[in-house]
Structure formats: C-alpha cells, structure tokens
Design a protein that fits this description.
With 219 residues, the protein is mainly α. It contains 9 helices and no strands. The protein has one domain.
Amino acid sequence: MLSDALRALAQVFSQPFRRVLWLSLASTIIVLALFGAGAQWALSSLPQFGAAWLDTTLEWIARFFAVIVIIPLVHPVVSLVASLFLERIAGEVEARDYAADPQGRDQPFFQSLFVAIRFTIVLIVVNLIALPFYLVPGVNLVLFWVVNGYLLGREYFELVALRHMDIASARALRRRHALRVFFAGVVVALFATVPFLNLLSPLFATAFMVHTSKRIGLA
C-alpha cells in the first residue's frame, strides 16, 4: 500500500498530469477565495451593540468559530472542484501503467457532477456533525482520519470501479475488500491533513485508488 501511495504521489507531479494539476489548483484556489470573501462579508455584517468591549469580544468569537467551521470544509470544496478532472486522471493512470488491461470508460459529465455534489454534501454534513469532537485534543485527528478514511475510501474506490462496471457490482467489490479500501481511504485522509498538499488530495486519491483497485484484481 505504501508503494502504491508513493507511486501515486509521484504521478500527480509528473508531466502527463501537470496540466490537470494546475487547472485543478487554480480552480480550487478561486473557489476557496470566494468562500473566504463570503465568510469575511458575513463577519463584517455582525450587529453592533455599542459597547466596544462587547463588540470586539463577539467579533473574535465569531472569527474563531468561522475558522473552526471552515477548516473541515476545505477538503469537500477541493473535492468538488477537482471532480471535474478526476476521470482524466484515472484514464491517464490506466493508460500509462495498465495499458494491457481493458481501459475504463469515462462517466457522463452530469452524472459525475451529481455524484461529486452528493459526496460533497455528505462530507460536509458528517464533518459538521463531528465538529464538536474535533475540538477535543488527542481525539480530533484520529476521528478525522477514521471518519474521512471511510468516506474517502468508499467514494474514490467506487469512482475508479465505475469505469469498469455498474454501480451494484462496484459496491459489491468494495464490500468484499472493505478493510483494504478503508485503510486506503485513511491514507488519503492523512494526506488531506497536510497543509498545501491537501489541495492535491483528490488527484492523489484517484491515482492511488487506481493502483489499489488493480491490486485486488479489477481488470
């Protein structure tokens, strides 16, 4: 698994993927900047109570909670934007490393977009539910890795598997190899906690899951 992860990481920065990498990064940064601008506007619209100490205290509290809420939302936003490019990444990895195997078929654009939006909503909702526990030192990182490891492993594995089979078969294959897929998802979640590299996590996850799926016999 470690060798596949290192292989996927190297591929994200390699020449065939570089154009997709920059397109994904630029799009993600623009979306996050707009999101941050919206949060700043919301903070500036807080009501004033006339007492300087009270207004300042409320502003700092609001900023603190804004940061706490935004951090778990970074990965879902990155995943949603990057979803526009993930089929291309999967296709490149298959063509480059598994040319002798049957090549997968790209999913229709609107179907891929619907799946990405649905997954983004699930990520946001689950992470917001877990948010109070993320504030507990010693529990937060482990919980983040476990929760998101399961979600990310399931989503990216099925993304790759759906290039070769229908949804029922993809889910059945994932369940048969649930433990391996979960630990592969945890690797992706670990990657997603590294600053700056987390912007690349969807591209890394897609390449990594192609290698993972081939290890368990996906042709």
